[in-house]
Amino acid sequence: MKMKEEVVYRKMVDADYQEVLEMVIETWNYREWIEKPLVKPMAEFFLCDLLVGADDVFVAVIADKVAGIVATSHEQWSRLQYVWQRRQLKALLQLAGFEDKNYIFAQYMETMNIDEELLALSGKKYGGALNLLIVKEGYQGLGIGGKLYKHFYDYLQGLGVKNFYLFTDNSSNFKFYDHKRLTRVNQKNFFWKDKDGEPHKKPEIYYLYEGNITI
After folding, report:
1. Distance from CA of residue 26 to its chain's centroid?
2. Dihedral angle at the C-alpha atoms of 93, 99, 104, 110, nearest 10 degrees?
3. pLDDT tens, 129-179?
4. pTM for the whole thing?
């Protein structure tokens, strides 16, 4: 990509959805560890779970292509509502006989419960959350992530929010948040299992970070 190409920052529209979905699939390498028929539905579940509770979704666009996204929530839903929503979906999947056929999805739901557990263990109430922040491969190193993060920060600051949280893991660029001087509050290991139920040797580590906002 040429450095001279303009980066446009704007609200996400529905026409951006498929590009954002593909960005999620590529960022977390869905095609490498999920059976092909389940790649898109699992990625959509993950993405929609993050977007449904967001009240501000902003994208970075270069040459009409989405290069990054940031999604913010501001006390729109209580955490219990998120838990109940996921339980409802899990029940629907069980009724459809889908979950029993996909050992990965069952574990995926477990990892979402880890996030809620980490938040509960913090014993804190936050005014906002960073739901999602991705910069597409090939567009990294151009300052897009920093500008999207600043948009997120400024948005909450304008609402008078004093603090926020986010979930991430060691398969993501969690060091970005260390660089932003956020505080790692809690973490938990999760060992993914193969089809035979054998756990992987190395765990995936899930983190809860928090940050303060200067009013």
Report:
1. 13
2. 60
3. 999 999 999 999 999 999 999 999 999 999 999 999 999 999 999 999 999
4. 0.87
Q: How far, in Å, CA of 72 to CA of 86, rounded?
A: 19
* Cα→Cα distances 148→59, 135, 210, Å: 8, 9, 17
In sign, the C-alpha dihedral spanning 72, 74, 79, 81 is: negative
**Which helix (H) or strand (E) segment is 146 a member of?**
helix 144-158
Structural contact between residues 20 and 66, judged by C-beta atoms closer than 8 angstroms: yes
**Alpha carbons within 13 A on the beta-carbon side of 77:** 17
Q: Where are the alpha helices (DSSP H) in 28-78?
A: 30-33, 36-51
* pLDDT tens sequence across 50-61: 888 889 999 999
Tell me the three-class secondary structure of 91-126, residue by residue: HHHHHCCCHHHCHHHHHHHHHHHHHHHHHHHHCCCC
Q: For the residues of 160-184, what is the DSSP string, one character each?
A: T--EEEEEEETTS-THHHHHTT-EE
